[in-house]
Specification:
Layout lengths: L17 H12 L9 H4 L12 E2 L1 H14 L2 H4 L3 E4 L15 E7 L8 E3 L3 E7 L3 E5 L2 E4 L5 E4 L5 E5 L6 E7 L1 H6 L5 E3 L13 H6 L20 E2 L1 H14 L8 E4 L14 E7 L8 E3 L3 E7 L1 E6 L2 E6 L3 E4 L5 E5 L6 E7 L1 H6 L5 E3 L3
Antiparallel strand pairs: 1-19, 2-3, 3-10, 4-11, 5-8, 5-10, 6-7, 6-9, 8-12, 13-14, 14-21, 15-22, 16-19, 16-21, 17-18, 17-20
């Protein structure tokens, strides 16, 4: 193991002198600088995320989210969302690393106008039975526990066709990443609304049966042709897998939402998982590059993240910053617990940055 000492040979260890201070001033006038003055900070021994572990309690957020219904009109807000902001990433409006998340609410009968943007987006429904989204002409009807995606560049709009209760779902986007790369675009649909095709949940009917339909090989877009994954099928898949395998020692019984054509992540910049913790199960600690935003989909438990104990129950949201040690436990001795999560692992893997480490002992 290499000694992590910034005074060792091979690290920047220049001592300032009056002559050097004057030299730095000359460089500054030319909009330049000396690398050795910042090298150890911008090239750390290991990841030094600005993000910190945070737990957002749904019971505390829910009344605040519902309050927005009376304060802000849908047509004025575009999307009525309460974003969840990490104290270490406020300037990016990020929840962890370069990932954004927020809780969007739509009142009975509301519909939002169509738009598209460079950022990729995903949805995880918390409550309400009337939620829908139209993605490039396909109308998706989604309910609690359902997961849906809005790949970058696709026209999309949202609404609630229920008559009595609001819909609350969680948005996840890579907006901070897109902005960090100065690659953001945003457009409002020229007709304000899309004309939906006649068959709702068309991609679910086509690709949701674990069999590839005729012509699937012609799908050439970089994201999944399947746009929604119902909770019931997902949960049953986890229970089936739990009968066949012990699962991961770090994540319990975990499955990734995938592109059915390629087997890869659902979108190029964000991946998503659902995991099941058996009654009373506690996992071992590990860490990895890449940030993760978790949502308690079922049950209650505790996660220890970078030494902080985050006790969660259904609807709660928490984050794991990159390279933070973390472990999970189901506090119920009789019922399983489930965690939904989304991450930036596809970016880490595409760039060759992904690394993982297990805690010894």
């Amino acid at each position: 193991m290499t000694t992590q000492d910034d005074n060792m040979l091979g690290r920047a260890r220049v001592s300032d002198t009056p002559e050097l201070e004057a030299y730095y001033g000359e460089l500054a006038t030319a909009e330049a600088g000396a690398l050795w003055t910042v090298a150890n900070r911008i090239e750390p021994w290991y990841p030094q995320p600005a993000s910190v572990p945070v737990l957002w309690r749904y019971a505390e957020l829910r009344p605040l989210v519902r309050k927005a219904l009376d304060l802000v009109k849908a047509e004025d807000a575009g999307r009525r969302v309460v974003m969840l902001v990490n104290p270490g990433r406020r300037e990016l409006s990020a929840a962890a690393g370069l990932l954004y998340t927020g809780l969007q609410i739509m009142g009975p009968g509301e519909s939002m106008t169509a738009h598209r943007h460079q950022a990729s987006a995903l949805r995880f429904v918390h409550e309400g039975t009337g939620a829908w989204t139209v993605v490039d002409g396909e109308k998706l009807r989604v309910g609690p526990g359902d997961f849906a995606i809005t790949p970058n560049g696709t026209w999309h709009e949202h609404g609630n066709e229920g008559t009595d209760e609001p819909v609350i779902w969680q948005d996840g986007l890579d907006i901070p990443l897109v902005n960090a790369l100065d690659a953001g675009f945003y457009e409002v649909h020229p007709d304000l609304y899309q004309q939906a095709r006649p068959v709702p949940n068309e991609s679910v009917l086509t690709y949701g049966g674990n069999l590839l339909p005729y012509g699937a090989e012609k799908w050439a877009r970089p994201y999944s042709p399947l746009l929604a994954w119902p909770w019931e099928r997902t949960y049953q898949a986890l229970r089936d897998l739990a009968e066949a395998t012990e699962g991961s020692p770090y994540d319990g019984v975990i499955m990734e939402y995938t592109n059915p054509v390629t087997g890869g992540s659902v979108m190029p910049t964000m991946g998503a998982h659902m995991q099941l913790l058996r009654p009373g199960q506690a996992t071992r600690a590990h860490r990895h590059t890449g940030s993760v935003v978790y949502t308690a989909a079922k049950g209650h438990g505790v996660s220890v993240v970078a030494g902080q104990r985050l006790e969660w129950t259904k609807g709660d949201i928490f984050c794991v910053p990159s390279w933070a040690w973390h472990e999970h436990a189901n506090l119920d001795e009789s019922e399983d617990a489930c965690l939904f999560s989304f991450n930036d692992f596809p970016v880490m893997r595409s760039l060759g940055f992904y690394r993982e480490e297990e805690q010894e002992g």
